[in-house]
Design goal:
The chain has six helices and 21 strands. By secondary structure, it is of the alpha+beta class. The chain folds into three domains: 207 residues, no CATH class; 41 residues; 108 residues, 2-Layer Sandwich (Alpha-Beta Plaits). The chain has a 14-stranded antiparallel beta barrel with strand order 1-2-3-4-5-6-7-8-10-11-12-13-14-15. It has a six-stranded mixed β-sheet with strand order 16-21-18-20-19-17. α4 packs across α5. It starts with a helix and ends with a strand.
C-alpha cells in the first residue's frame, strides 16, 4: 500500500515537474493579507506585529496528499527595520519536512510616496522518509537511490525585496539562494515574484486589491496565481482567483473576518485538468493576530511634529491678527459714528418731546410701539449701520439691545432696557455703569 502511495507521490511530482524543492514549498493561498509568506522584505507592511497560523490540506481525497502547518510572527522593531519568524511542517505521503527560519528586513524610505524594502531569511530544513511505512522488493528503486530527502539538516539562506509606490507594490524573492543542494545556476531558477495594487473607493470603506504571483521552484513548472480581493472596513474580505500550473489549473475562493485584532481566514481550490479526477479540492484555514507595538519616537519624527505645530500656530496667529484688525476697524467705525452724550447727560434724566420710532434689525425685525417711560441708553449714532453693528457686538456679549430713531435730531439710540419707574431705571443704569458701560444714561420718552 505505502509503495503505491510513494508511486502516486512521485507521479504527482513528475506532473508538476520537480522533486525535492517542490516538496518543501507550501503553495499558500492565504498570502493576500500576509505578503511575508512570499518574501521576507514584507516584514512590517501590516504596521504592527502580525502573528499567523495556517493549516493547508492540499489535494484532498488523494492518498498521502500534502498536509502543511505554518506559523510565524513578524513586525517592526524600529523605524527602519523589523524581524520575522516562520515555522513550516509538511507531510507528503512518506516524506516529511520541517523548516524554521528567522528573517530581517530593512525599510528604505525614498520619499513620502515611495519605499524600498530589503529582506533576508536564514534557517534550516530537516527532511526525512519514514522507511517503516515502505515495503518494496526492489531496494534499488530510483525513488530511494540518491534521494535528496535524507535525514541531514540543510542550512538555508534567502533574499527578497519589495518596492512600494503609493498603492502599487512589486516584490521579488529568492527563497533558497543557498540550501546545500543548489549550485549557483539553479539558485536563480527558484524564485517568487508579485505585483499588486490597492484601490480605495471614494466615500466608502471598500478596497479592491488585484494581485498577481509567479512562483518557480527549481526544475518544477512555474505556478501562476491571479487574485482579486475586496475588503470592507478592514473587517470583512472576499477573494477569488485563478491558479495555473503544468497541465492542471484551479479556481480559488476565500473569505476573511477580522475583529479586535483577531482574524479568521479560509480559502479553497477547485482543481481542474488532470488533478480533478485525483484530488478535486484543496483547503486552507488561517488565524491572524495583530499585536500593537509602541515604537519609540525618533528625533526626526519629533522635529516633524514640532515643525507642523509651529506651522499651525503661525497660521492661527495670522488668522487671529487678521480678525483683530477687522475688529479694530469695526470699533473705529463705531467710534467715529458716535455722537457726544454730553447734551443728553446734562440732567439726571433726559426728557424727550420728539417722536421716536423703532428701527427694525435682523435681531429685532418686528415693529415696536414705544410706551411712555424710561429707557436706558447705551450710545447714540449718526447712522443706522453703526447702530446695527453695535447691537451685534452686544448680542455676542449676551446683552439684548435694540435701536430707536429720533427723526428730528437724526440720531439712532441703542438702548438696553425699559422701565415705567424712574427710580428703577436709575438704579439699573448705575448697575450698567459698574459693568464699565460708563456712557449709559436714562431717556424719558413723552
Amino acid at each position: 500500500m505505502y509503495k503505491n502511495i510513494l508511486k502516486i507521490t512521485i507521479c504527482i511530482n513528475l506532473l508538476l515537474g520537480g522533486f525535492a524543492q517542490a516538496q518543501d514549498e507550501v503553495n499558500h493561498n492565504l498570502y493576500t493579507q500576509n505578503l511575508f509568506l512570499l518574501t521576507p522584505a514584507a516584514i512590517g507592511t501590516q504596521g504592527d506585529f502580525y502573528a499567523y497560523a495556517n493549516y493547508r490540506n492540499q489535494w484532498t481525497g488523494m492518498p498521502g496528499a500534502p498536509v502543511a502547518f505554518a506559523a510565524g510572527l513578524h513586525g517592526m522593531i524600529h523605524k527602519a527595520g523589523g524581524l520575522g519568524l516562520n515555522i513550516v511542517s509538511r507531510q507528503f505521503g512518506v516524506y516529511a519536512s520541517n523548516y524554521i527560519s528567522g528573517a530581517y528586513a530593512h525599510n528604505l524610505k525614498i520619499n513620502d510616496n515611495m519605499k524600498l524594502n530589503f529582506g533576508v531569511n536564514f534557517g534550516g530544513i530537516f527532511r526525512n522518509i519514514d522507511q517503516s511505512k515502505i515495503s518494496t522488493s526492489n531496494p534499488g528503486d530510483v525513488a530511494f537511490v540518491n534521494n535528496p530527502y535524507d535525514d541531514k539538516p540543510r542550512f538555508v539562506v534567502g533574499f527578497g525585496t519589495l518596492f512600494q509606490y503609493k498603492k502599487l507594490v512589486l516584490g521579488f524573492s529568492l527563497p533558497y539562494m543557498y540550501n546545500g543542494i543548489h549550485d549557483v545556476k539553479s539558485t536563480f531558477s527558484d524564485f517568487q515574484g508579485l505585483v499588486g495594487y490597492t484601490h480605495a473607493f471614494k466615500n466608502t470603506k471598500i478596497e479592491l486589491m488585484p494581485l498577481f504571483v509567479l512562483r518557480k521552484h527549481n526544475t518544477a513548472s512555474p505556478i501562476y496565481d491571479l487574485n482579486i480581493s475586496a475588503r470592507w472596513n478592514e473587517m470583512f474580505s472576499v477573494r477569488t482567483g485563478f491558479r495555473s500550473f503544468s497541465s492542471a489549473y484551479s479556481y480559488i475562493f476565500g473569505f476573511g473576518i477580522e475583529y479586535n485584532n483577531i482574524g479568521f481566514q479560509y480559502a479553497f481550490e477547485l482543481n481542474q485538468g488532470e488533478l480533478k479526477t485525483i484530488a478535486p479540492l484543496s483547503h486552507e484555514f488561517g488565524l491572524v493576530f495583530k499585536i500593537k507595538s509602541k515604537q519609540k519616537e525618533s528625533t526626526d519624527d519629533k522635529i516633524a511634529k514640532l515643525s507642523a505645530r509651529v506651522d499651525t500656530l503661525e497660521l492661527v496667529e495670522k488668522r487671529n491678527t487678521e480678525e483683530l484688525k477687522l475688529v479694530e476697524n469695526q470699533l473705529k467705525t463705531l467710534e467715529d459714528s458716535k455722537v457726544s452724550h454730553e447734551e443728553y447727560k446734562k440732567s439726571e434724566v433726559f426728557e424727550n418731546t420728539d417722536t421716536v420710532t423703532h428701527v427694525t434689525t435682523a435681531e429685532h425685525p418686528q415693529e415696536i410701539n414705544y410706551e411712555q417711560g424710561y429707557y436706558i441708553i447705551h450710545a447714540v449714532y449718526n447712522n443706522k449701520a453703526a447702530a446695527e453693528e453695535s447691537i451685534k457686538i452686544f448680542k455676542k456679549a449676551g446683552l439684548n439691545c435694540k435701536v430707536m430713531y429720533n427723526a428730528s435730531k437724526k440720531h439712532y439710540y441703542t438702548y438696553f432696557e425699559f422701565y415705567t419707574s424712574k427710580s428703577d431705571a436709575l438704579k439699573k443704569m448705575d448697575e450698567y455703569k459698574r459693568k464699565n458701560y460708563n456712557d449709559a444714561w436714562v431717556f424719558k420718552y413723552k
